[in-house]
Design a protein that fits this description.
Elements (H helix, E strand, L loop, with lengths): L10 E2 L18 E14 L2 E12 L6 E10 L2 E10 L5 E2 L5 E4 L5 E4 L2 E9 L6 E2 L15 E10 L2 E10 L2 E9 L6 E7 L3 E6 L8 E7 L9 E6 L6 E7 L10 E3 L5 E3 L2 E9 L5 E8 L7 E4 L10 H4 L7 E9 L2 E8 L3 E8 H8 L2
Antiparallel strand pairs: 1-26, 2-3, 3-9, 4-5, 6-7, 7-8, 9-10, 11-12, 12-13, 13-14, 15-16, 16-17, 17-18, 19-21, 20-21, 21-22, 22-23, 24-25, 25-26
Length: 360
């Protein structure tokens, strides 16, 4: 499927794509890197630091076989292993390249790849050096299928990393913290399944920590953006719906938070994603009140960016723009985004241009 090239506010970097799977060393010699995308981003002095989601699969399978990576219980812990599935087994559905579904009651799912988080660093924001080894690799029951889509938020001198913990139990949100991007401490799950797209605010408001999150109701309702508060970043409550999907357009199917919250003189800026009926992911923008972020001050009336470039339209999962990180430098917004679930890219827009488009 192709789409007309839109007149987007977000201007693509001529360096795009910034990171491709071929640049990333596999974590194991018998694995291959399929995707390097959906990176959390933070500015530390003159350095831009990414936590890239690296999705790996088993490099070789026998004819008629698919080998999938996952964690298996090993005594008191969990170790990485590989499970072999027969492609001609009618009990399995192999239609989706991202997963295999065992037709059972209830259905059982295997992911075709396992994701971990890998550090990448840059001094100019576009040319990144990627570590050879994982920074955060799946290691718990709740990460059996991988660690995905990290967001990095600097809060009170520490760097908090929230990420999607994926397992056969569901999609949950984990929290970790680092002081130096050399050592990292897991703090546990902060949202149970199914909940993801958590975006932390970088400071307390009214003495409390705040975040956006995105529950995925299975029986009634639509996946939309909610807001919650916490006394300690671990225990979250006072949940309220913040922003919903908009019928009939680019965000009709569902919406979810993207980058951690950015503080500006106009309000809290949130770059989020919206999904249409054709499963095309675009980027949008919300502006929340500085003192009471439950109040939406402005919402961009059209997409900030839609899939258009070849690396956005075609990939592991086509027609996707998905951000986990954005920064503000020199009165411009820098949005780092995963494209087509395969590569990392960058787009920029001057803040005065964005404010004018949002009417603030």
């Amino acid at each position: 499927m192709t789409f007309d090239r839109p007149h987007d506010l977000l201007k693509r970097s001529p360096a795009n794509p910034l990171i491709v799977p071929e640049q990333v060393r596999p974590s194991r010699p018998d694995w291959r890197v399929d995707c390097a995308f959906n990176a959390g981003v933070v500015q530390v002095g003159d350095e831009t630091i990414m936590l890239v989601r690296v999705a790996e699969s088993v490099a070789a399978s026998a004819p008629g076989e698919l080998r999938v990576p996952l964690l298996a219980e090993d005594g008191a812990g969990w170790r990485c292993t590989v499970e072999s599935l027969r492609r001609d087994d009618p009990a399995y559905d192999f239609a989706d390249p991202r997963m295999v579904v065992l037709r059972a009651d209830p259905a059982q799912v295997y992911l075709t790849s396992m994701s971990h988080l890998r550090l990448a660093r840059s001094t100019n924001g576009t040319d990144f050096t990627i570590d050879d080894a994982p920074f955060l690799f799946p290691s718990t029951r709740y990460e059996r299928f991988g660690c995905e889509d990290a967001r990095i938020t600097a809060i009170e001198g520490r760097f908090y990393i929230n990420y999607t913990a994926v397992s056969d139990l569901g999609i949950a949100t984990g929290l970790a913290v680092t002081d130096d991007f050399r050592r990292v401490e897991r703090l546990g799950l902060i949202f149970s399944p199914d909940n993801r797209d958590v975006c932390l605010f970088p400071r307390r408001i009214g003495g409390e920590y705040w975040c956006l999150h995105r529950p995925a109701p299975r029986h009634l309702g639509t996946p939309e953006i909610w807001i919650a508060r916490s006394p300690d970043l671990l225990h979250w409550g006072r949940h309220e719906r913040l922003a919903g999907a908009v019928p009939g357009g680019w965000e009709a199917s569902k919406i979810g938070g993207g980058a951690p919250m950015l503080e500006t003189d106009r309000g809290w800026l949130q770059i989020y994603h919206g999904v249409d009926a054709q499963q095309r992911y675009s980027l949008g923008a919300l502006l929340l009140d500085l003192d009471d972020p439950r109040i939406v001050r402005a919402r961009l009336g059209r997409p900030l960016a839609r899939p258009a470039e070849p690396y956005e339209v075609t990939g592991f999962f086509d027609n996707v723009l998905f951000t986990c990180g954005a920064t503000i430098r020199d009165d411009a917004l820098y949005v780092y985004y995963g494209a087509a679930d395969r590569v990392m890219a960058l787009g920029t827009v001057a803040l005065p241009e964005l404010w004018a488009a949002m009417g603030v």
